[in-house]
Protein backbone atom coordinates (compact mmCIF):
# COMPACT_ATOMS: atom_id res chain seq x y z
CA UNK A 1 0.00 0.00 0.00
CA UNK A 2 1.63 3.28 -1.11
CA UNK A 3 -1.22 5.70 -0.50
CA UNK A 4 0.43 8.84 0.90
CA UNK A 5 -2.92 9.83 2.42
CA UNK A 6 -2.87 6.83 4.72
CA UNK A 7 -1.96 7.51 8.35
CA UNK A 8 -0.52 5.19 10.98
CA UNK A 9 0.99 5.89 14.37
CA UNK A 10 1.30 5.11 18.07
CA UNK A 11 -1.06 6.56 20.65
CA UNK A 12 -0.32 6.32 24.39
CA UNK A 13 -3.20 6.07 26.85
CA UNK A 14 -2.08 7.46 30.21
CA UNK A 15 -3.63 8.49 33.51
CA UNK A 16 -3.66 7.66 37.19
CA UNK A 17 -4.76 4.14 38.18
CA UNK A 18 -8.40 3.20 37.71
CA UNK A 19 -9.59 5.97 35.38
CA UNK A 20 -10.61 3.46 32.69
CA UNK A 21 -7.56 3.32 30.40
CA UNK A 22 -7.78 -0.41 29.69
CA UNK A 23 -11.55 -0.26 29.16
CA UNK A 24 -11.04 2.62 26.74
CA UNK A 25 -8.51 0.70 24.65
CA UNK A 26 -10.56 -2.50 24.64
CA UNK A 27 -13.60 -0.62 23.31
CA UNK A 28 -11.57 1.37 20.78
CA UNK A 29 -10.30 -1.84 19.17
CA UNK A 30 -13.50 -3.81 19.76
CA UNK A 31 -11.96 -6.70 21.69
CA UNK A 32 -10.69 -7.27 25.22
CA UNK A 33 -6.90 -7.57 25.25
CA UNK A 34 -6.08 -5.45 28.30
CA UNK A 35 -7.40 -6.48 31.69
CA UNK A 36 -9.89 -4.40 33.61
CA UNK A 37 -10.76 -4.30 37.29
CA UNK A 38 -12.18 -1.96 39.91
CA UNK A 39 -8.92 -2.46 41.81
CA UNK A 40 -6.30 0.10 40.78
CA UNK A 41 -3.02 -0.80 39.07
CA UNK A 42 -4.06 -3.89 37.12
CA UNK A 43 -2.09 -3.10 33.95
CA UNK A 44 1.58 -4.01 34.39
CA UNK A 45 2.72 -4.40 30.79
CA UNK A 46 2.58 -1.99 27.91
CA UNK A 47 -0.19 -3.51 25.80
CA UNK A 48 -0.52 -2.60 22.13
CA UNK A 49 -4.04 -2.64 20.72
CA UNK A 50 -4.56 -2.04 17.00
CA UNK A 51 -7.56 -0.38 15.35
CA UNK A 52 -7.55 -0.33 11.55
CA UNK A 53 -10.03 1.53 9.36
CA UNK A 54 -9.95 2.81 5.77
CA UNK A 55 -7.16 5.36 5.58
CA UNK A 56 -5.74 4.97 9.09
CA UNK A 57 -4.28 2.53 11.58
CA UNK A 58 -4.15 3.45 15.30
CA UNK A 59 -1.71 1.54 17.51
CA UNK A 60 -2.81 2.18 21.09
CA UNK A 61 -0.39 1.65 23.96
CA UNK A 62 -2.11 0.96 27.29
CA UNK A 63 0.32 1.89 30.06
CA UNK A 64 0.31 1.12 33.79
CA UNK A 65 -1.37 3.76 35.94
CA UNK A 66 1.40 5.98 37.31
CA UNK A 67 1.79 4.88 40.92
CA UNK A 68 2.95 7.00 43.88
CA UNK A 69 1.48 5.14 46.86
CA UNK A 70 3.35 1.80 46.71
CA UNK A 71 7.15 1.87 46.60
CA UNK A 72 9.72 -0.67 45.44
CA UNK A 73 11.34 -2.03 42.29
CA UNK A 74 8.01 -3.15 40.80
CA UNK A 75 6.47 0.31 40.80
CA UNK A 76 9.71 2.03 39.82
CA UNK A 77 9.69 -0.28 36.78
CA UNK A 78 6.03 0.44 36.03
CA UNK A 79 6.51 4.21 36.33
CA UNK A 80 9.60 4.05 34.09
CA UNK A 81 7.41 2.22 31.55
CA UNK A 82 4.99 5.17 31.51
CA UNK A 83 7.79 7.71 31.03
CA UNK A 84 9.47 5.70 28.28
CA UNK A 85 6.19 5.27 26.40
CA UNK A 86 5.46 9.01 26.44
CA UNK A 87 8.76 9.65 24.70
CA UNK A 88 8.10 7.34 21.77
CA UNK A 89 4.55 7.95 20.53
CA UNK A 90 2.84 10.28 18.04
CA UNK A 91 -0.08 11.30 20.24
CA UNK A 92 -1.07 10.98 23.91
CA UNK A 93 -4.51 10.50 25.43
CA UNK A 94 -4.57 11.84 29.00
CA UNK A 95 -7.54 10.14 30.65
CA UNK A 96 -9.41 11.69 33.57
CA UNK A 97 -12.51 10.58 35.42
CA UNK A 98 -15.34 13.09 34.92
CA UNK A 99 -15.66 15.56 37.81
CA UNK A 100 -12.57 14.21 39.59
CA UNK A 101 -9.19 15.93 39.27
CA UNK A 102 -6.81 14.80 42.00
CA UNK A 103 -3.22 15.29 43.05
CA UNK A 104 -2.43 11.93 41.46
CA UNK A 105 -3.86 13.22 38.16
CA UNK A 106 -1.62 16.27 38.42
CA UNK A 107 1.43 14.05 38.98
CA UNK A 108 0.71 12.26 35.71
CA UNK A 109 0.04 15.60 34.00
CA UNK A 110 3.52 16.73 35.02
CA UNK A 111 4.95 13.89 32.89
CA UNK A 112 3.06 14.83 29.73
CA UNK A 113 5.35 15.70 26.81
CA UNK A 114 5.47 19.29 25.58
CA UNK A 115 6.36 18.45 21.96
CA UNK A 116 3.78 15.71 21.34
CA UNK A 117 0.03 16.39 20.85
CA UNK A 118 -1.90 15.53 24.02
CA UNK A 119 -5.68 15.12 23.97
CA UNK A 120 -7.66 15.43 27.18
CA UNK A 121 -10.11 12.51 27.42
CA UNK A 122 -12.73 12.93 30.13
CA UNK A 123 -14.09 9.44 30.80
CA UNK A 124 -17.22 8.15 32.58
CA UNK A 125 -19.52 10.64 30.86
CA UNK A 126 -22.49 8.79 32.36
CA UNK A 127 -21.45 10.04 35.81
CA UNK A 128 -21.51 13.72 34.77
CA UNK A 129 -25.20 14.64 34.90
CA UNK A 130 -24.82 18.43 35.02
CA UNK A 131 -23.37 19.67 31.72
CA UNK A 132 -22.58 23.15 33.10
CA UNK A 133 -20.53 21.63 35.92
CA UNK A 134 -18.82 19.33 33.42
CA UNK A 135 -17.91 22.31 31.22
CA UNK A 136 -16.46 24.16 34.23
CA UNK A 137 -14.51 21.04 35.20
CA UNK A 138 -12.98 20.77 31.73
CA UNK A 139 -11.95 24.42 31.76
CA UNK A 140 -10.29 23.93 35.16
CA UNK A 141 -8.18 21.08 33.77
CA UNK A 142 -7.39 22.85 30.48
CA UNK A 143 -6.02 25.83 32.41
CA UNK A 144 -3.15 23.65 33.65
CA UNK A 145 -1.90 22.23 30.33
CA UNK A 146 -1.90 23.15 26.65
CA UNK A 147 -4.02 20.30 25.27
CA UNK A 148 -4.35 19.77 21.52
CA UNK A 149 -8.02 18.91 21.99
CA UNK A 150 -10.69 17.58 24.37
CA UNK A 151 -13.21 14.76 24.10
CA UNK A 152 -15.73 13.52 26.65
CA UNK A 153 -16.46 9.79 26.42
CA UNK A 154 -17.93 6.82 28.20
CA UNK A 155 -15.50 4.01 27.45
CA UNK A 156 -17.68 1.43 29.20
CA UNK A 157 -20.68 2.28 27.02
CA UNK A 158 -18.67 3.07 23.84
CA UNK A 159 -20.04 6.61 23.71
CA UNK A 160 -18.25 9.22 21.56
CA UNK A 161 -15.34 6.92 20.71
CA UNK A 162 -15.73 7.63 16.98
CA UNK A 163 -15.41 11.34 17.75
CA UNK A 164 -12.27 10.62 19.76
CA UNK A 165 -10.73 8.76 16.81
CA UNK A 166 -11.57 11.72 14.58
CA UNK A 167 -9.51 13.95 16.88
CA UNK A 168 -6.57 11.54 17.01
CA UNK A 169 -6.36 10.82 13.27
CA UNK A 170 -4.80 14.16 12.13
CA UNK A 171 -1.97 13.69 14.62
CA UNK A 172 -0.84 10.39 13.13
CA UNK A 173 2.00 10.59 10.61
CA UNK A 174 1.48 9.65 6.98
CA UNK A 175 2.52 6.02 6.78
CA UNK A 176 1.53 2.66 5.40
CA UNK A 177 -0.04 0.28 7.97
CA UNK A 178 2.43 -1.39 10.32
CA UNK A 179 0.20 -4.41 10.98
CA UNK A 180 -2.27 -6.57 8.98
CA UNK A 181 -5.76 -5.07 8.99
CA UNK A 182 -7.28 -8.03 10.89
CA UNK A 183 -4.69 -7.88 13.70
CA UNK A 184 -5.91 -6.37 16.99
CA UNK A 185 -2.80 -6.81 19.15
CA UNK A 186 0.89 -7.60 18.81
CA UNK A 187 0.83 -9.63 22.02
CA UNK A 188 1.17 -13.42 21.89
CA UNK A 189 -1.47 -15.94 22.95
CA UNK A 190 0.96 -16.91 25.72
CA UNK A 191 0.86 -13.33 27.07
CA UNK A 192 -2.92 -13.01 26.74
CA UNK A 193 -3.46 -16.26 28.65
CA UNK A 194 -1.52 -14.87 31.60
CA UNK A 195 -3.44 -11.60 31.49
CA UNK A 196 -6.79 -13.39 31.56
CA UNK A 197 -5.81 -15.34 34.70
CA UNK A 198 -4.53 -12.15 36.33
CA UNK A 199 -7.80 -10.37 35.57
CA UNK A 200 -9.81 -13.10 37.30
CA UNK A 201 -7.54 -12.86 40.34
CA UNK A 202 -8.17 -9.13 40.60
CA UNK A 203 -11.87 -9.53 40.00
CA UNK A 204 -12.62 -12.32 42.45
CA UNK A 205 -10.21 -11.60 45.28
CA UNK A 206 -10.97 -7.87 45.48
CA UNK A 207 -9.42 -6.18 48.50
CA UNK A 208 -8.06 -9.53 49.73
CA UNK A 209 -5.72 -9.68 46.76
CA UNK A 210 -2.05 -9.38 47.76
CA UNK A 211 -0.65 -6.28 46.04
CA UNK A 212 2.62 -8.04 45.23
CA UNK A 213 1.04 -10.75 43.10
CA UNK A 214 1.52 -11.72 39.48
CA UNK A 215 1.16 -14.68 37.15
CA UNK A 216 3.66 -16.66 35.13
CA UNK A 217 2.68 -18.89 32.22
CA UNK A 218 5.04 -21.82 32.75
CA UNK A 219 3.87 -23.88 29.78
CA UNK A 220 1.72 -23.23 26.69
CA UNK A 221 1.30 -26.30 24.49
CA UNK A 222 -0.70 -26.64 21.29
CA UNK A 223 -2.12 -30.14 20.81
CA UNK A 224 -4.11 -30.21 17.59
CA UNK A 225 -7.21 -28.09 18.22
CA UNK A 226 -6.61 -27.82 21.98
CA UNK A 227 -4.32 -25.58 24.07
CA UNK A 228 -2.78 -26.92 27.30
CA UNK A 229 -1.86 -23.99 29.53
CA UNK A 230 -0.13 -24.13 32.92
CA UNK A 231 -0.08 -20.94 34.98
CA UNK A 232 1.62 -20.20 38.32
CA UNK A 233 0.30 -17.43 40.54
CA UNK A 234 3.24 -15.77 42.28
CA UNK A 235 2.82 -14.44 45.80
CA UNK A 236 5.42 -12.97 48.12
CA UNK A 237 4.63 -14.84 51.36
CA UNK A 238 3.48 -18.33 52.34
CA UNK A 239 0.58 -16.82 54.30
CA UNK A 240 -0.82 -15.31 51.09
CA UNK A 241 -1.43 -18.67 49.40
CA UNK A 242 -4.68 -19.47 51.28
CA UNK A 243 -6.08 -16.06 50.22
CA UNK A 244 -5.78 -17.04 46.57
CA UNK A 245 -6.74 -20.70 46.98
CA UNK A 246 -9.75 -20.18 49.25
CA UNK A 247 -11.44 -22.72 51.51
CA UNK A 248 -11.25 -26.14 49.93
CA UNK A 249 -9.72 -24.57 46.81
CA UNK A 250 -13.03 -22.90 45.97
CA UNK A 251 -11.66 -19.50 44.90
CA UNK A 252 -8.87 -20.85 42.76
CA UNK A 253 -11.29 -23.28 41.07
CA UNK A 254 -13.68 -20.43 40.21
CA UNK A 255 -10.84 -18.25 38.93
CA UNK A 256 -9.49 -21.11 36.79
CA UNK A 257 -12.90 -22.02 35.36
CA UNK A 258 -13.78 -18.46 34.33
CA UNK A 259 -10.29 -17.88 32.91
CA UNK A 260 -10.56 -21.06 30.84
CA UNK A 261 -13.94 -20.02 29.42
CA UNK A 262 -12.55 -16.59 28.45
CA UNK A 263 -9.54 -18.23 26.79
CA UNK A 264 -11.75 -20.58 24.79
CA UNK A 265 -13.74 -17.61 23.52
CA UNK A 266 -10.63 -15.56 22.70
CA UNK A 267 -8.61 -18.39 21.11
CA UNK A 268 -11.64 -20.10 19.53
CA UNK A 269 -10.59 -23.58 20.64
CA UNK A 270 -10.77 -25.97 23.59
CA UNK A 271 -8.45 -25.11 26.48
CA UNK A 272 -7.09 -27.26 29.29
CA UNK A 273 -5.98 -24.87 32.03
CA UNK A 274 -4.17 -25.65 35.27
CA UNK A 275 -3.50 -22.87 37.78
CA UNK A 276 -1.61 -23.17 41.04
CA UNK A 277 -0.04 -20.84 43.60
CA UNK A 278 3.63 -20.65 44.51
CA UNK A 279 5.73 -18.43 46.76
CA UNK A 280 8.60 -16.41 45.33
CA UNK A 281 9.69 -14.15 48.16
CA UNK A 282 10.86 -10.67 47.19
CA UNK A 283 9.99 -11.06 43.51
CA UNK A 284 8.48 -7.55 43.32
CA UNK A 285 11.76 -6.01 44.49
CA UNK A 286 14.03 -8.20 42.33
CA UNK A 287 14.91 -5.97 39.38
CA UNK A 288 16.62 -8.81 37.51
CA UNK A 289 13.53 -11.00 37.87
CA UNK A 290 11.31 -8.17 36.66
CA UNK A 291 13.49 -7.81 33.58
CA UNK A 292 13.38 -11.56 32.86
CA UNK A 293 9.63 -11.55 33.44
CA UNK A 294 9.09 -8.85 30.84
CA UNK A 295 8.20 -6.01 33.22
CA UNK A 296 11.21 -3.88 32.34
Helix content: 25-40%
Q: Any idea what the radius of gyration is?
A: 20 Å
User: H/E element string?
Assistant: EHEEHEHEHEHHEEHHEH
Approximately how much beta-strand content do the residues carry? 15-25%
Number of H/I helices = 9
Strand tally: 9
Given as residue ranges, the uncertain stretches (5+ residues, pLDDT < 50) are 39-44, 65-71, 283-296
Determine the N-to-C terminus distance.
Answer: 34 Å
Class derived from helix and strand content: alpha/beta
Shape: globular
Q: What order do the strands of the largest sheet run in, or round the barrel if closed?
A: 2-3-1-4-5-6
Oligomer: single chain
Average pLDDT rating: 83
Summarize the biggest pleated sheet.
6 strands, mixed
Keywords for this structure?
globular; 9 strands; 9 helices; 296 residues; 3-stranded mixed β-sheet; disordered C terminus; 23% strand; 6-stranded mixed β-sheet; alpha/beta
Explain what the structure shows:
With 296 residues, this protein is α/β, with parallel strands linked by helices. It is globular and about 55 Å long. The two termini are 34 Å apart. A hairpin with a 2-residue loop joins strand 7 (214-223) and strand 8 (226-235). It contains 9 helices and 9 strands. Strands 2-3-1-4-5-6 form a 6-stranded mixed sheet, with helices on both faces.
Helices and strands in order, then pairings?
Elements: E1 7-14, H1 21-29, E2 47-53, E3 56-62, H2 73-86, E4 91-97, H3 103-109, E5 118-123, H4 131-142, E6 149-152, H5 161-168, H6 189-205, E7 214-223, E8 226-235, H7 241-245, H8 250-267, E9 270-279, H9 287-292
Parallel strand pairs: 1-3, 1-4, 4-5, 5-6, 8-9
Antiparallel strand pairs: 2-3, 7-8
Helix pairs in contact: 6-8
